[in-house]
UniProtKB/TrEMBL annotation:
Taxonomic lineage: Bacteria, Bacillati, Bacillota, Bacilli, Bacillales
Family statement drawn from the similarity comment of this UniProt entry: Belongs to the class-III pyridoxal-phosphate-dependent aminotransferase family.
Entry superkingdom: Bacteria
Protein name: Aminotransferase class III-fold pyridoxal phosphate-dependent enzyme
Pfam families: Aminotran_3 (PF00202)
Cofactor: pyridoxal 5'-phosphate
Species whose genome carries this gene: Paenibacillus ginsengarvi
GO molecular function, one term: pyridoxal phosphate binding
Keywords linked to the UniProt accession: Aminotransferase, Pyridoxal phosphate, Transferase
Family annotation (PROSITE patterns): AA_TRANSFER_CLASS_3
Keyword Transferase among record annotations: yes
Length: 412
């Protein structure tokens, strides 16, 4: 098989960024693998045969584990009957019913393929329902909606503040970025143009997600006061911090919500859900949102199987327990070896943060050494349901080697 570096060079020749997904293009070569060719449970292998205990999980969608038996069996069974048809398939109804059962705000649901386009659909519904144009966005809501010059161009990466390349100024001027957990900033926007705001879209801040306890109720009250809709981006938080995401965890319901990562264990599927009253804005006579592949059956079969596992087994509890075991243990290693890094946030989806005064290069150095010792990480890293106790113990042993090596390098 061609080596991982040769694959990297080959990808760069024909694909901008070297990957169709920006965050999958390696930035830490040669330690980081350029391509992954296989996953099983909680481990992945690159083209050179190197094994990694994986905490990237496809950048979040793999919540149960690679080749999870119930999901793979559901896909194979459906493959024998067909992938897509010229009419709706019963799985559309079955999966929509499951979502409406599991997600607090969901009275109706529709399907697309990616989180970004589902957020775009929710924004269009909000504009149709309210008759307003302006959108306030908090956090990263996918490339389709990185429209504000002061918003996030990629997860955790603020835009330049200038016009976004490829976005007409007239469009960008209708999208406004606001900080997480800053109700005063939102109030200023509503004081300035409240009668023009269709919706506030929130993707939780990973490191400070606990602030949602007071922030979500305050935003809910503010949007109701001004007649704007509240949209939750549950692409990361759904099926992770709770089955129903932040709305279930914090007990504050939005008008619309979007789910994707986690609902089909890696198969391409997203859903936009909400109350019947709001969702009627995309029914006949409303805004047209339509995609040939929205009812593709293999992804729907995977989603039905995935959500059934969530219902019958304590997947979310496992993610919290194993996350605390792993990330709490790693924070202890950082303290012991005086590595100025810390995992902050909720245990199912914490983020690597620099301690005060630390150089950004420390994070890169640690990540490189983690790869070298067979652990695959990302800025926001996740455990999945296939990470058993032995896997967590082994991962901590490997990352302790990385901490030792980093401490020795910093001491020179």
């Amino acid at each position: 098989m061609t080596s991982t570096i040769e694959w990297h060079e080959r990808l760069r020749k024909t694909i901008p960024w070297g990957s169709s997904t920006c965050s999958k293009a390696p930035s830490l070569l040669p330690e980081e693998p350029a391509v992954i060719v296989k996953g099983k449970g909680c481990r992945v292998w690159d083209a050179d045969g190197n094994e990694y205990i994986d905490f990237r999980n496809g950048l979040g969608p793999v919540t149960l584990g690679y080749q999870f038996p119930e999901v793979d069996e559901a896909i194979r069974d459906q493959l024998g009957s067909g992938i897509i048809f010229g009419h709706a398939h019963p799985l559309e109804a079955e999966v929509a019913e499951l979502l409406c059962e599991l997600v607090p705000c969901a009275e109706q649901a529709r399907f697309l393929k990616t989180g970004g386009e589902a957020i775009a659909a929710a924004i269009r519904i909000a504009r149709t329902y309210t008759g307003r144009d302006r959108i306030i966005q908090i956090g990263y809501n996918g490339w389709v909606n990185s429209l504000s010059g002061s918003g996030q161009s990629l997860p955790g990466q603020a835009a330049s503040g200038k016009a976004v390349p490829g976005v007409p100024n007239a469009v960008g001027e209708l999208h406004h970025a606001a900080p997480w957990n800053d109700i005063a900033a939102l109030e200023r926007w509503f004081d300035h143009c409240g009668s023009e705001i269709a919706a506030v879209v929130i993707a939780a801040d990973y490191a400070s997600m606990a602030d949602g306890k007071t922030f979500y109720p305050a935003v809910r009250e503010l949007t109701r006061k001004h007649g704007a809709l509240l949209i939750y981006d549950e692409i990361v938080t759904g099926f992770r911090i709770a089955i129903g995401g932040v709305q279930q965890y914090f007990g504050v319901q939005p008008d619309l919500a979007v789910f994707s990562k986690g609902m089909a264990n890696g198969m391409p599927l997203s859903a936009y859900v909400g109350s019947k009253d709001v969702m009627k804005a995309c029914d006949r006579g409303g805004t047209v949102i339509s995609s040939t592949f929205g009812g593709e059956t293999l992804s729907l079969a995977a989603s039905k199987a995935t959500m059934t596992v969530y219902k019958e087994q304590d997947v979310v509890g496992h993610l919290w327990r194993q996350g605390e075991h792993l990330w709490g243990g790693l924070n202890g290693l950082f303290d012991r070896y005086e590595v100025p890094l810390e995992l902050k946030g909720f245990w199912p989806c914490p983020t690597f943060t620099l301690k005060t005064g630390a150089s950004p290069s420390v994070r890169e150095q640690f990540m490189r050494l983690a790869y070298r010792n067979g652990v695959s990480l990302y800025n926001v890293s996740y455990v999945n349901y296939s990470h058993k106790d032995a896997d967590i113990t082994e991962a901590l042993e490997r990352m302790e080697l990385a901490c030792k090596q980093l401490a020795e390098a910093r001491a020179k």
